[in-house]
Design a protein that fits this description.
The complex is a heterodimer of chains A (244) and B (223). With 244 residues, chain A is of the alpha/beta class. Chain A has 9 helices and 10 strands. Chain B has one domain: MetI-like (MetI-like fold). The chains are: A alpha/beta (244), B mainly alpha (223). Chain B: InterPro entries: AA_ABC_transptr_permease_3TM (IPR010065), ArtM/GltK/GlnP/TcyL/YhdX-like (IPR043429), MetI-like (IPR000515), MetI-like_sf (IPR035906).
Chain lengths: 244, 223
């Protein structure tokens, strides 16, 4: 279980997360919606320990990310996919994927590579294993980024606006992979602006507004007139996003 | 006077031996200065403490003192306190220390230029600081600093001519001897000008090729 309890995060005088509570159970797909600056990415960065909390607690399968001794265990259980891919530019696609399994999980190289190739094949990149990131398209890079996160066999996949830097065609490539992952039971926290897609794959949708978690509802209820749409801010956000 | 290069023909082997010595000193000092520069760059980008301060003091000191003064201190000064080092070793050490100060700047810039997102990706995947540094930070930094390190090498070749002042007869030292033997300084130093220019030109071409080769996979990267 991934537990976010009453989390507060401030940058100087700005409160970015203000008492956020969120629980993600194994097998769930939870999408996080909200306008830019609402704190969505910061929430992901708090869960994977890139930001220090100013209050509250986050545990990943019971391991507290704020405790230095437990952070490593917490991080083994979550995998992050970044908006700007953040691949290692000097390594091939395959090396990007196998580095952490070999160095952190101490997997034998041959095994890690076999699994890496299998992962690449599962995202349709079996023939690009030896390509460097600069030789890949944006969509291909992000698919490698997803493989890199999955190679650590995380219990929770954290996706931070993973299609925001991609054009519609590449976005579709990546979303297809995510739909497949959601279909086979991968637990995901999906920060996104892709509302229609979130609606298709999510079990629950939460809505952040100025650091406050305004709504946390099952997907069907979120889009219902007497559910999420009853919140004026949510209705406004959805109608604006659909117009754009 | 007549410009006649043929008077140098009998001395070509002698000059070539000087050029070989220049190459040997610079080759060793290049390795020394990159290793030293790497260590100092690591210390300078570390999060504080005495190592960082010592590294800054070293860089500031050796960049702000004329090379010939450093050299004389090592070669003529240290024996006064009982430390004797032969001319060749002194030359390699002095060039390594002086070059290391500049090399550390180049490598440090390469380290600081690394996209923070890449480091965050390494961090969340659980890679230790050591592995992140040796597998990700250093290889990327060295690739991007190939060109500035090349300038350090070229500077080192030029500076190595000063080693003739401590009896190390590298290219310039041999040329001085030939000039006084033949009484033809114009021809001798003309050849020396051409040889140094050719040498550094070749090195800079080599560096450009190395840079392109090492970074071929990074070309066209959207930073």
């Amino acid at each position: 279980m991934l537990n976010v309890e009453n989390v507060r995060k401030t940058f100087g005088a700005v409160t970015v997360l203000d008492g956020v509570n969120l629980t993600v159970k194994p097998g769930e797909v939870v999408s996080v919606l909200g306008s830019s600056g609402s704190g969505k990415s910061t929430l992901i960065r708090c869960i994977n320990g890139l930001e220090r909390l100013d209050g509250g607690r986050i545990t990943v399968d019971g391991f507290d990310v704020s405790r230095p001794k437990e952070l490593a265990e917490a991080r083994k259980r979550s995998g992050t996919v970044f908006q700007l891919f953040n691949l290692y530019p000097h390594m091939t696609a395959l090396r990007n994927i196998t580095l952490a399994p070999i160095e952190v999980l101490k997997r034998p190289k041959a095994e890690a590579e076999a699994e890496g190739r299998a992962l690449l094949a599962s995202v349709g990149l079996e023939d690009r294993a030896d390509a460097y990131p600069a030789q890949l398209s944006g969509g291909q890079r992000q698919r490698v980024g997803i493989c890199r996160a999955l190679a650590m066999k995380p219990s929770y996949l954290l996706l931070d606006e993973v299609t925001s830097a991609l054009d519609p065609e590449m976005t579709a490539e990546v979303l297809n992979i995510l739909a497949k992952l959601a279909g086979n039971g991968t637990t995901m926290v999906f920060v996104t602006h892709e509302i229609e897609f979130a609606r298709q794959i999510s079990d629950r949708i939460v809505f952040l507004e100025k650091g406050v978690l305004l709504v946390d509802l099952p997907t069907r209820d979120f889009f219902a007139q007497d559910g999420g749409l009853a919140q004026p801010r949510v209705a406004q956000f959805l109608s604006k996003m659909r117009k754009d | 006077m007549r410009f006649d290069l043929s008077v140098l023909v009998p001395h070509l082997g002698f000059l070539a031996s000087g050029a070989m010595l220049t190459a040997a000193v610079c080759g060793l000092a290049l390795v020394g200065s990159v290793v030293l520069g790497m260590a100092v760059a690591i210390a300078r980008t570390s999060s504080g403490g005495w190592a960082r301060r010592a590294a800054y003091a070293y860089v500031d000191l050796f960049r702000n003192v004329p090379f010939i003064v450093q050299l004389f201190f090592f070669y003529y000064g240290l024996p006064e306190i009982g430390i004797y080092i032969d001319a060749f070793t002194t030359g390699v050490i002095a060039l390594s220390i002086a070059g290391g100060a500049y090399a550390s700047d180049a490598i440090r810039a390469g380290i600081l230029a690394i996209d923070n997102g890449i480091l965050e990706a390494a961090e969340v995947s659980g890679l230790s600081k050591r592995v992140t540094f040796t597998r990700i930070v250093l290889p990327i930094a060295l690739r991007t600093s190939v060109r500035p390190l090349g300038s350090v090498l070229i500077n080192m070749i030029l500076t190595s001519s000063i080693l003739s002042t401590i009896t190390l007869n590298e290219l310039t030292g041999q040329a001085k001897i030939v000039a006084s033997d033949t009484f033809r300084p114009f021809e001798v130093y003309f050849v020396l000008l051409v040889v140094y220019a050719a040498l550094t030109y070749l090195v800079s071409i080599g560096i450009a090729l190395l840079h392109r080769r090492l970074n071929r996979d990074l070309m066209g990267q959207v930073s």
